[in-house]
Protein: Branched-chain-amino-acid aminotransferase
Organism: Brevibacillus ruminantium
Amino acid sequence: MALQLDVVLTKEKKEKPDFTQLGFGQHFTDHMFIMDYSAEKGWYDPRIVPYAPVTLDPAAMVFHYGQAVFEGLKAYRTKDNRILLFRPEKNMQRLNTSNERISIPPVDEAFLLDALQKLIEVDQEWVPSAPGTSLYIRPFVFSTEPYLGVRASHSYKLLIILSPVGAYYGDGMKPVKIHVENKYVRAVRGGTGNAKTAGNYAASLKAQNEAKDLGYEQVLWLDGVEGKYIEEVGAMNVFFKVNGEIWTPALNGSILDGVTRNSVLQLLRHWGLPVYEKRISMEELYEAYTRGELEEVFGTGTAAVISPVGELSWNGNQLRIHEQQVGELTMKLYETLTGIQYGEVEDPFGWTVQVN
Amino acid sequence: MALQLDVVLTKEKKEKPDFTQLGFGQHFTDHMFIMDYSAEKGWYDPRIVPYAPVTLDPAAMVFHYGQAVFEGLKAYRTKDNRILLFRPEKNMQRLNTSNERISIPPVDEAFLLDALQKLIEVDQEWVPSAPGTSLYIRPFVFSTEPYLGVRASHSYKLLIILSPVGAYYGDGMKPVKIHVENKYVRAVRGGTGNAKTAGNYAASLKAQNEAKDLGYEQVLWLDGVEGKYIEEVGAMNVFFKVNGEIWTPALNGSILDGVTRNSVLQLLRHWGLPVYEKRISMEELYEAYTRGELEEVFGTGTAAVISPVGELSWNGNQLRIHEQQVGELTMKLYETLTGIQYGEVEDPFGWTVQVN
């Protein structure tokens, strides 16, 4: 039976926040999408309703066994007042990849994308227009059954909430300092690293805090087996420009298959640059650095799009990248991607989807 | 400032379930303990209140970044109608170990244990009396701040809920069949394996489901680095009796420090048996098996106390243990531990704590 989307509009719109002081993930729009799952009915009762709290039994399994996954994407307002999504179908696909890994039943990706578009339409006045601002979109699923046995839940909720967010680089793009993590591990082969599960993020907080205490903005994660090979930076994928080549860690099951990562790879190949997805050891990178061949380093992710790295700290060695300035390729990728996202640069790949 | 426990009793007691058909973790008592945390106030407003749903903003961080930990212990009714807890201070300690690993602020262990005792007193008629039944106790903590940035939450809730549970071995103790997992990994050095975090359990579900589909009741987890060394069985610690010696995997950071595991070790040493906490490879165990020296295998955990293992399936080899019957040591440990828990066997270690 096809799902029928129900829409209940709010009777009282919220006061809008100051759109010049949005920050990230603090303000939420007037409405949200919500849908339920039960073992008997499957996913049912999809609806757009006023943004409201969720009420759960204290025994709801999400609090105990952490079956929870999420996605993150953005809607962008163009200068001619259209609203664009960037490759949203990739996020819907990955939501199901994450669901599968922790035994949450799959969702209908096309239906969910339609519902998302409708939700944005309903809350379109929340899509900010100042340069660099956007509407952050957070779909997420969690288990709700009140039961303390360890098994997959028989009931779930899926929500989409929307948050207008400020420009990531409000003060201009500034390279970050990264601590190469050699104590904590984010993910391992056979684990959940390639899924966007809540538990992966909880597990990462302590390392992030310790890196911050040492004066670094993020950690660079190494593989869980040998502690040698580069995986991700913070909650981003990572790229290296080495002697004219561009390297990024190959997807190996413990690295997230980032939408921005995938887009950067396509752009670089489109530009005819030599790109390698491969296993990269920190040692190999350090050797390239000592030869003066480590030209640029940047992270990729939905929030920042492209995040230049100015310094890597590894086992007492400080690798200063590109004189701690933003590299040319880094900047070109940032401008091209954000240009496509905001409808200002030609989109040769058909990546953007216009909200009606 | 010392925390002051507030008690609000329910006006309408629930109808009790059939205490001969309790199952596990499905029924909850009339009251619960709850306490809040904010960055400004620390832990505040501890209270015993009627069991009731929890209301959260959809952006509450627990749904997204999974900062959630829990504990599990039991209260036992003795034949002379006292109520005993088993080493509850160990669970409070471990709660803080888990908190620390995923950046949740610590709780006052002594205060929480007092509050737990008061809660059980309030709901004492829910402690069942039939043989093997008990009151399962679930303390848990989760993040509540409505914010989508990836960092530790600034607010939390800690709850304790109580659930009367049936006898684990209602139909008698029966050895289980275990699948040695060689595809999925539960935890790795540098990860969260020794913490009781929600995400660890979410990550384990898929392997459990696949093992069930193959006809096994549980998985035996191997280490995440080499995939060779034994870690845990399902959500239990594991012991092997090999040629008169008793072996269990040494705590290595990725194995949970089980209260039952610790108690079994103390009992075995008290009995003068040769006990080794060490790294144990599946290969070494298989060799012992082929020499006819693998005499008994059992899991240890709060729910089952002792769970005999009758078969291990490893890379196509079926290891049948003790003719798939419960071993003598396995049974002696079960009877001694449950005897102490129910106040029927002398408690030389001072493990039990009486609820007033």
Residues 176-341 of chain A form a domain with the D-amino Acid Aminotransferase; Chain A, domain 2 fold (CATH 3.20.10.10). Chain A has two domains: 6-165, 176-341. The CA atoms of residues 8 and 220 of chain A lie 44 Å apart. The two ends of chain A are 26 Å apart (CA to CA).
